[in-house]
């Protein structure tokens, strides 16, 4: 008996909803595209390229627009014999210094087998090797540095590279940097001299609104899903949910993908709003679990204190009561507890992550105090904590208490 069988009732091209898909057209970014094209114009004219800095929240099309425009640019400059354009793209996420970025760029430019070691050279030597490689390629070179904020304050390369030609370190190559970031603080923290050059042209990508996301999603759904398996209401719901949250096209696409998967796995013939709701819960759960996983042990224990008060139906809980519960949990778990001030900081972090909400209560003579409650479903928090803390009995007791109190 065959155990795997092809299912293609809902999807016509599932890959079109995935991150790696390069859309043929970009919706709703006409103004940004126009400004971006202006910034790239010197390349076509044969002059030194501008350095461009793109910023905006995650999922708002910075990478998609860059790939789309650079691919058009590469096609269009073929017309001009005196423009020899190369594009080198690097995601800086795993690289935390100028040194590491420079090594990666050298290795990207060198032929296979000629890579240099990632450690052991003085920084200036690596920069010099990079200049050599860039001159070897020659012509106009655009370096696309995605997630450029990962470089942190070790940003010497961003100072040196734009000045390399005027200092005589580069002779043949005309280099432009395209920096992309979703960290709004990064730009402001840069040394003013780096800011001046790197941010020569700045493009901000705002979050999408519901209508914009509906249009982006409709075009993608037409490719990804079979006709008559969905209707506009489903697309609009995904768009509205994503617009209300972060205005991210990635989030809207993920919702539609997951909703369609739910329909296909359930052998339904159509994607419905019910599937979208289920997908939203699933994504929310993943987000919460991811956030919780990244906490320290005392972050987990502080959250568990709130969770156990929530299971009793007693939240919002005052910070003093949460701290007492935390002490009790630490005692039972056999770990040394932190001072109340530190636990308060953990609670603030949980609030920043969107896992708790806090209220400041003004109580006159007795001063102000905070009270906290869960901002995520109890079960999501329990499931995530269960993976992190070895306390099976306590979790099972908590579930019983929550059921008794009809808390979910
Ligand atoms: N205007 C648009 N038209 C069509 N598709 C889009 C548009 N904007 C974003 N997308 C799609 O949404 C997804 C996320 O976009 P993209 O990766 O460009 O976001 P980003 O701003 O670079 O995010 P991050 O900062 O997280 O890298 C991609 O699949 C992309 O194809």
Automatic annotation (TrEMBL):
GO terms for biological process: DNA replication. The keyword Nucleotide-binding applies. It comes from the Archaea. The lineage of its organism: Archaea, Methanobacteriati, Methanobacteriota, Stenosarchaea group, Halobacteria. The keyword Nucleotide-binding applies. Belongs to the CDC6/cdc18 family. HAMAP family: ORC1_type_DNA_replic_protein. Keywords: ATP-binding, DNA replication, Nucleotide-binding. Involved in regulation of DNA replication. Residues 48-203 form the AAA+ ATPase domain. It holds the Pfam family AAA_22. This is ORC1-type DNA replication protein. Residues 303-385 form the Cdc6 C-terminal domain. ATP binds at residues 60-64, 208, 220. GO terms for molecular function: ATP binding; ATP hydrolysis activity. It comes from Haloarchaeobius iranensis.
